Please model this.
Amino acid sequence: MDDQKTLDAVPITSSPKIHYSEFLVDKSPLATCEACIVVPARDESVRIEKCLSALIGQVDPDGKPIDRSKYEVIVLANNCYDETAARARTFGARHPRLVLHVVETKLPPERSYVGCARKLLMDEACRRFFLLGRPDGIIVSTDADSFVDPGWIAGIMREVEAGADAVGGRIVADRVERLLLDPSVELTYLRQVAYDFLIAELEDLIDPDPFDPFPRHFNHIGASLAITAGLYARIGGLPDVLEDEDKALYQAILRSGARFRHSLNVRVTTSARLNGRVERGFSAGLRHFGSLDQQSRPLLVEGASGSETRLRARRTLRELSWKVQLNRPLTSSQIRGVARSLGISDSWLWHEIHRQQTWGQLMERVDLRQKAEGEWEQLWPPICLEKAVAALRVRLSELRARPQKTDPALDRV
Model:
């Protein structure tokens, strides 16, 4: 199958190490530093000051200013042709209490993508925390075209203190810029947000994650993504990919078996402009919405019935996986039933569920197998976003009214 090489590339066990090819900041970190915020920036002179201003006004849960010695900010102005770095330095000079490092670099053409810049920054943050002997230090990524809420840092710290190894922040589109969009684009965006929230609730009702309970959101992108330095080092750092580096990092976190929290207490506002700096960023998604409208084509997503089938099968698979970990025997009929629900080969699944791997690794390989075999989309072809949202609302109202069964064993998975 065409996707088999991709499938085989998913590691079963791995513990890669980070190789620091470049040190960005010569000045040593403060001994009191608990969070290192990294900001890749390319030609963001118009927005960089607003981004940094939001990082100055951080408060604790009681609304009191956070001690600025507890966090530092590193801005990497990469391949800029404007005044991004100069404005960031001027801002730092006006606010000397903010621990701000501004670095300029010219990446070669083959490396001049946001994933490379973000990786340089996150690797540097990890290096600095290990200099302090602090694997519990928090590496936090945001974007130069975004601005964080006042309780952003405190929210991240609270989630880590509660046991999270990594935290995704809620991303919202800038309301002022959003209102400048074509109404059809804004409507599709709002429907997509509604769909994602409804799927998150459906997951919690059918196959809940004890470490990421509802209410929660669904974002895990570079505009607000936090991870402990220890976990970052253990998974080998940010994957070096040309695009969607934040999604690749999220998959690596899940693959490791770590605890990820989609926190509603961590929130970031990002630009709703159409001329973004990356090919597959938020702006590209908005342009895609507009293109679909111009062609009178609907946005297609997984329907409610397909999502529910997938989640129920996933819950059953989780239970079977737990039995394997307890050395309890499985029957071929048990495997056959869940394999049919997922549209994959039962013999392949039998082999996979008995391999030594984390739950995240197993689910990633199952997802790839579904795509490789191609039966899933034949069973559950994508449907119009508007219809999917309506069907999810109806189905969730039914599920909410039912008492939910719980399995204590799942809390230990």
